[in-house]
């Protein structure tokens, strides 16, 4: 664990989690969906580790990157439709919850009864909610938002600002100083910065290499370190 800026965890009232690479390892299913799309458009398949570097900015950008950023928008949309059709059917073939996530979430709920937990992903909202439900994560979160829940995606702050309002009470919304975003990529850290909230980076995820360019307040090596981080 590496601390760049201390976070006052005892004061926090909102914990926001990224999904892919933070709560779940979806690398194989996403890569398989990308390669299924590439086969259908007669493009060469890509290595899984290459596809993993394209994840984090939503399905449209994932597909665009896999195609080499073509100019033909109709082609990109067709490829996106193929990707989503395959992924809807195969999103849970290999996806699993990272070791330590369930226990850490249970401990968080017990240790912070005043706080609410939410998911904010750039993955489309329907598969996001279906995966959260299928993997037994739904009871932990008061809200699950995806990349098409709003008119913008992370790193735009709109999703976080919405959650700050929704997690509030009759006295008002949750202040930015009482919230943290936990994610595995620079997109998540930049989202936190743009929203004025704290950030925790996950070095075990799908895009930890991007965190070198956008260092989080705290960097952890596994979900098991979440509680150590909070206690410390």
Can you put this structure into words, describing what you see?
This protein has helices spanning 27-40, 48-52, 59-67, 73-90, 101-111, 125-134, 158-166, 186-195, 225-231, and strands spanning 2-3, 14-17, 24-25, 96-97, 116-120, 143-145, 179-183, 198-202, 218-220. The chain starts with a strand and ends with a helix. Strand 5 (116-120), helix 6 and strand 6 form a beta-alpha-beta unit. The longest helix has 18 residues, at 73-90. It is an alpha/beta fold. The chain is globular, with a radius of gyration of 17 Å. Helices cover 40% and strands 13% of the residues. The strands form two sheets. The protein has a seven-stranded mixed beta sheet, with helices on both faces.
Structure described in brief:
With 232 residues, this protein is α/β, with parallel strands linked by helices. The chain has helices at 27-40, 48-52, 59-67, 73-90, 101-111, 125-134, 158-166, 186-195, 225-231; strands at residues 2-3, 14-17, 24-25, 96-97, 116-120, 143-145, 179-183, 198-202, 218-220.
């Amino acid at each position: 664990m590496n601390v760049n800026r201390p976070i006052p965890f005892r004061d926090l009232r909102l914990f926001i989690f990224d999904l892919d690479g933070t709560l779940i390892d979806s690398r194989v299913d996403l890569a398989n969906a990308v390669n299924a799309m590439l086969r259908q458009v007669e493009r060469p398949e890509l290595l899984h580790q290459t596809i993993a570097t394209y994840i984090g900015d939503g399905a449209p950008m994932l597909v665009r990157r896999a195609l080499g950023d073509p100019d033909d928008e109709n082609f990109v949309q067709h490829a996106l439709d193929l990707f989503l059709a395959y992924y809807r059917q195969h999103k849970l073939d290999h996806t699993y919850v990272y070791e330590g996530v369930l226990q850490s979430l249970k401990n968080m709920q017990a240790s912070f009864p005043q706080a609410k937990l939410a998911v904010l992903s750039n993955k489309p909202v329907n598969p996001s909610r279906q995966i959260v439900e299928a993997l037994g994560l739904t009871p932990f979160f008061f809200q699950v938002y995806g990349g098409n829940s709003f008119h913008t995606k992370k790193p735009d702050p709109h999703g976080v600002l919405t959650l700050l309002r929704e997690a509030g009470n009759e006295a008002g919304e949750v202040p930015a100083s009482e919230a943290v975003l936990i994610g595995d990529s620079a997109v998540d850290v930049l989202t936190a910065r743009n929203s004025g909230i704290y950030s925790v980076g996950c070095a075990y995820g799908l895009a930890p290499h991007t965190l070198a360019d956008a260092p989080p307040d705290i960097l952890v090596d596994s979900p098991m370190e979440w509680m150590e981080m909070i206690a410390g």
